[in-house]
Amino acid sequence: MSTMKFANVLLETNPRSLAYPTMYCNGDQPVIFDTDAGEWMMYGKGEYDYTTYFNSLSVLKLRKYTIADGFFLHLELKGAACTVNQTMGDAFSAHSQDVDGTTHELKASEDWQMLDIPLIITDKMVLVGFRIITEGRVYIRNSYYSVNYDGKLRDVELALSTTTFKKESFIERNIKLVKSQIIDSGEDISEHFTMYVIDNGRTLDAEALSSEHVYVRPNDNVGGAGGFTRGMIEAMEQTPQATNILLMDDDVAVSPESIKRTYNLLRLVNDEYSEALISGAMLDYEIGEDQWEDVGNMTAQGTFSPCKPSLRLTVFGNLIYNELYDPTDWQRNNMYAAWWYCCIPMSLIKKNGLPLPFFVRCDDAEYGIRCKTNFITMNSLCVWHMSFHERYNAAVERYQTTRNTMIAQAATGMAPEADFMHELHNNIRLELKKFGYANAELCLDAFEDFLKGPKFISKVGQAEASFMAANRNKEQLVGFDELQKMANEDPDLHGFDLKKVDRQLIESDKPRSIPQRLRDLITDNGQRILKVRGEGYAVIPLQGWVYPAGVIRGKNKLIVIDWYNRKGIIRVKDTKRYSEIKKRYARDLRYYKANIARLRQEYSAARKELTSIKYWKHYLNME
User: How many angstroms separate the CA atoms of 294 and 341, rounded?
Assistant: First the structure.
């Protein structure tokens, strides 16, 4: 029987830990860093519960995913007298509970005292942790969980690949963290870790930032898909070859401890989960205690969706829910791990090939579903990422998503029962009802590019060119000052004053009667059959999926607000443009019905080439 350190007791100083300290320790006194002593300090007499998101141990999942079969806690403490208890949480725990027979008392001491505690584990335990009750100020350092295992640890060479485009502040901070806390840590991972920064914007000082184990690669702007593929190839061709590659977004904050635990998990993983994708959670960058997603799935309606509901991770019951969640059959068959934090075995890449040349959007979802493998999630494996809901981009949501989901389904059979045509129809209709004609045309641009077949998307530079065109063609928002000026010059918008607008107004709606609903259904908000000019205006949010049906009905103009970025636009009902878009859509549908069988065959036949190393090396100018 052998032992390895698995997880450090994590205390760190950053904006998230300062704003949400109970993700680390839940106490009635603060835990602070004593700069004079250079140590962490439990400030005064009180109770400090470390059964938290970062400092509990996920024993249920470790017993499921790994060869670990015994668990221990090592503590180093000094200061006032204190009592240490093992804690646990089971399926119905609303808060942590002390485990009987695990009380350890320490007398007051100015010298460091070491405490090694064998943890009691039962089948009902989901999480374990510890609680310290102090009589005064107590310092803590060098504390960690370790595991016993029977067998041999796996040899792991972990590569981290992050793709960036002009996000220097995020990347430079993360490189600094990786160097100081992983590469220079002296821990086992430091000798088996390489970081690749794929610089699609060519704005980083590659020579200054690169070092042993960190490589900055200037790259053409080939989007996230191309950048991550470059990272995969680099990891595949390094010496020694990477066994696993961790893909991580550029605009994230990460705790290096999450990466260390990922590495340790890979060393311990059992045969059943040896080719699993490790799917790190996306926590909200601005509300750091909220988890948006750890694994996602493609729904039957053809949309991306988290498998779990949003969870507040400072609520103990949510930590239990997070670990116990059992995906539905549909979710399991259509599941993916997003590439904000996704660790992929190299063996899986060799079996399934490289990503499709999508530039951005759907590359990670398609790849996860394509691999048809197991998934590993665990509390504490995460990044903090800016919320997608607050940075809506029609070029992504209406063009990239529409085109790429259709290509993915045709080329690799992604989510074969998902109805992407239903999603296309719904999005076009939704945009038309809200007078979002430019964005409805983006949907059709995407559809038509899909209908061009694999030769179109396979051309070098096409993915970037198409995305740039979509950004030019999308509805162009203006700043609030310009928006107010435009409204002041429009007699139909008399009385509109941004100073009187708030989120409650922007996000409000009105009820509709059944006759009103039927009229809106038949006329698409007065744009067909019974065409009417409409009267007045309404204020609505930018997000394309929102349908404030009661507010917009019967209006002639809509003021669309992106409150987060302080921008907006004025939309005007245009029945002529509406009719042109409907005719174009009908023409496209006729072509689709006549050619879809052929297109599916062509995309499927092109899969091998599009996901090959040879193709991608040519695409990326790596030959």
Answer: 9
Measured CA to CA in angstroms, residue 403 lies from 231, 443, 553 at distances of 24, 8, 30
**CA–CA separation, 105 and 188 (whole Å):** 33
Of the candidates 579, 578, 521, the one whose C-alpha atom is nearest the C-alpha of residue 547 is: 521
pLDDT tens, residue by residue, 399-454: 999 999 999 999 999 999 999 999 999 999 999 999 999 999 999 999 999 999 99
pLDDT for 529 equals: 84
Apex 193 CA angle, 187 and 199, nearest 5? 135
Give the global pTM.
Answer: 0.95
Sign (positive/negative) of CA torsion 526, 530, 533, 535?
negative
pLDDT of residue 442: 98
Q: What is the pLDDT of residues 14-24, one digit of tens each?
A: 999 999 999 99
Residues 295, 38: Cα–Cα separation, whole Å: 38
- Give the contacts of 310 (CB within 8 A, at least 6 positions apart): 290, 291, 292
Contact 307, 325 (CB under 8 A): yes
**Per-residue pLDDT reduced to its tens digit, 505-546:** 999 999 999 999 999 889 999 999 888 888 999 999 999 999
Q: What are the phi and psi torsion angles at 130 (to 5°)?
A: -155, 155
Residue 528 and residue 531: Cα distance in Å, rounded?
Answer: 5
DSSP string, 243-262: SEEEEEESSEE--HHHHHHH
Res 35: pLDDT:
82
* DSSP secondary structure string for all residues of 438-486: HHHHHHHHHHHHHHT-HHHHHSTTHHHHHHHHHHHHS---EEHHHHHHH
What is the number of other CB atoms lying within 10 angstroms of the CB of residue 292?
21
Q: Is 76 helix (H, G, I), strand (E, B) or coil?
A: strand
Task: Kindly report the backbone phi and psi dihedral angles of residue 253, in degrees, each rounded to the nearest multiple of 5, phi listed first.
Answer: -110, 140
Residue 129 CA to residue 139 CA, distance in Å, equals 18
3-class secondary structure, 352: helix
